[in-house]
Give the backbone structure.
Amino acid sequence: GNSVTQMEGPVTLSEEAFLTINCTYTATGYPSLFWYVQYPGEGLQLLLKATKADDKGSNKGFEATYRKETTSFHLEKGSVQVSDSAVYFCALSGNTGTASKLTFGTGTRLQVML
Amino acid sequence: EAEVAQSPRYKITEKSQAVAFWCDPISGHATLYWYRQILGQGPELLVQFQDESVVDDSQLPKDRFSAERLKGVDSTLKIQPAELGDSAMYLCASRKQPGLATYEQYFGPGTRLTVT
């Protein structure tokens, strides 16, 4: 079955530091890949997505590239802010029917300090 | 901007009681999902609807959980009786249709359930 593995947290960084959160996946076929962010007490918000190999998703300074050869989708940001403190989830899904459900990693908590 | 609505936001109930959660997806979204997120973990699918039909409930504990989407619009998830291990965040999500051009699931704010 499908699975997502992401680095354990918490990740603690100083403001303006470079961020990488690793994510690798196992899936059949050609899944779509996502990063979701969850702020305390809230639901999930889509941060970015990529639907085919070599696609780069980007949003709010965050980027991730769909690497089929390494089955990875690492999240990066060049300069983090305190407001980026949240839990980040890597996820995958198929495209149709029951395969469209999302399979999530366990989440990585990011803490950004002044 | 349209949003997925869920209520209540918080629910505290005693073990063995019944509890129900409600979800109203974005208008026009045919696919609706219920996920359960245990503290410190990623969400896991409980049930998926396409319009009013259940298409995946393989992870739903059917001895105590039930879900319905009678008119293919809003949905209710029920637990009876609740157990301590059901304490979690229950998230509802919707998706326009299971087509190649519409991958994105939109999540509601969730219902946090505490069973005492």
Remarks:
- The mean pLDDT of chain B is 92.
- The interface with chain A takes residues 4, 6, 31, 33, 35, 40-45, 48, 50, 55-56, 91, 93, 95, 98-100, 103-110, 112 of chain B (CB under 8 Å).
- The two ends of chain B are 37 Å apart (CA to CA).
- DSSP finds no helices and eleven strands in chain B.
